[in-house]
Model the fold of this input.
Amino acid sequence: MAGTTVEEHWIRTDRHRTFYLAAGPEDGPLLIFVHGWPELSISWRHQLPVFAGLGFRAVAPDLRGYGRSSVYPRHEDYAQEHVVADMIDLLDGLGADRAVWVGHDWGSPVVWNIAAHHPDRCHAVANLCVPYATLDKGWEHTVALVDRSVYPTDQYPVGQWDYQLFYEESFERASAVFDADAYLTAKALFRKGNPKGLGKPSATAAVRAAGGWFGGADRAPDLPADRDVVTEEDLRCYAEALSRNSFFGPDSYYMNHPANEAYAATAADGGRLSMPVLFLHARYDYTCETINSRLAEPMRELCGDLTEAVLDTGHWMAQERPAEVNAELARWLATKVPSVWPVAASR
Done:
């Protein structure tokens, strides 16, 4: 299909270098896909050619600390304010005033913050798995939303977010285990959702009690690859980038809760969003469990034009169920953001 070749590019400024993938006509309406931990621009490999084929200019950057974008030496370099500034630089470098932004995992707080702090740079925003007014608002706010029917306070004081405290308390240990074998780490992490976990505590709720990730082991276990989520080529690409840069940058995203909370407090209009918003719930994502818990309630209060959909998938939604994700995104764009739908696609 014409226009679906995915090409590599860089945007360079005095403050940062962003690598990004792009597909589709250069004058097409702009969609920017923002990945999370511990991913890359290739996490959107199933979305870029599809939306390019519809006539969009589909772009996916490597966030700072990842892939071929700039890497920094301090935890504070990975605070949300800096990552958002990178994305605004990217938008400027693409010569666009506004875009539709799509995020996942840590990319979701980035997109929520772009919407909250730079609403004039957004046609609309969509996010997968991580709802608004959670991690983008900081630690205390998120822990207050823990489902205590699943995570009793005496057993799980901070619920499913226990693993984030492990970074704060044992950062070097956490990163060293991932860095011991980035290929095994990626292979262990990228797995489809398991319906058997419904209503049960997420494994992320017991990371500190276990002495760290993977039950306190010194490296990730050698599990069979989950081919429903990643190919061998995908795994090698993730592993090469993570081995080259290390997990310091990706893990440092978890080390800035106070700074992120302070940044969120400066959002325009008290953080209320008036542009069209799409949120995709993952039924089998037990860390970001948004269907039966209160985790999505603040989002509903703060978004004036919110569309929600539930997909039967785990956390790596865009890689596990790309056709369903693409269909929901396309439906929402066509019905809720018709002004950005490519003219050529309607002929």
Remarks:
- DSSP finds 14 helices and eight strands in the chain.
- The chain has a mean pLDDT of 96.
